[in-house]
Amino acid sequence: MPHLNHRPTLVVMVKEPHPGRVKTRLGRDIGLTASAWWFRHQVARLLRRIEDPRWDIALAVSPDVEGLQSRIWPEHLPRVAQGKGDLGDRMARLLRGMPKGPVCIIGADIPGITRARIAEAFAALGGHDAVFGPAPDGGYWLVGLKRQRPVPPRLFEAVRWSSETALSDSAATMAGLRIAHVAILRDVDTLSDLKALSQVCR
After folding, report:
1. CB neighbours of 70 closer than 8 A, spacing ≥ 6?
2. Where are the domains of the chain?
3. Between vectors from CA 33 to CA 31 and to CA 36, what angle results, nearest 5°?
4. Quick one: which of 111, 101, 181, 189 has its CA closest to 140?
5. Residues 127, 182: contact at Cβ < 8 Å?
6. Cα–Cα distance between 26 and 197 in angstroms, integer?
């Protein structure tokens, strides 16, 4: 990984794992309690796997007050509230508000994320202004900015979230930035996603 002036920050977006509040599409397939249980344990596994001395981790929590006080997430990891607005509003605020240095944001529901994948993304920011980790459905599991240039003022405006154009819409709000792509990873929204991942992991 190239030498960077400021230590990178990895932001993990998490929701309190209440039945009916997380992974509701998966919940329609396996039950809301089971999908919330899956999410809670997936996040715990992910956080253990991606801690690394090369970057700092911060949890962006939702709902704000409950998440900041939650006993579910590891106490040693700093937390920030996601705040109001759609996904783009919240991610743009996080990308502007983190300490100096490169920032990558990931979702917590992607079992394929490893330290190596995170290292690839930060390494890509050595020669680029922005980085995406694409998902097969047209969205993305990671977005990051080097932040040596100002964060685009209209970042993530008018993005069609949960659609096959989410990544291309997001990239369109980064006019003039050099954008890199890293590995394609699948998130888990449905039982078929879970089954597909279990096939890959065998």
Report:
1. 16, 61
2. 9-201
3. 105
4. 181
5. no
6. 14
Give CATH for domain 9-201: 3.90.550.10
**Which residues lie closer than 8 Å to 125 by C-beta, 6 or more apart?**
4, 8, 102, 104, 131, 144, 145, 146, 180
What is the rounded distance in angstroms from the CA atom of residue 3 to the CA atom of residue 55? Answer: 12
Q: What is the pLDDT along the chain (202 residues), one digit of tens a residue?
A: 444 458 999 999 999 999 999 999 999 999 999 999 999 999 999 999 999 999 999 999 999 999 999 999 999 999 999 999 999 999 999 999 999 999 999 999 999 999 999 999 999 999 999 999 999 999 999 999 999 999 999 999 999 999 999 999 999 999 999 999 999 999 898 999 888 877 655 4
Which pair of structure tokens corresponds to residue 158?
Answer: 């008018």
CB proximity list for 148: less than 8 A, separation 6 or greater: 129
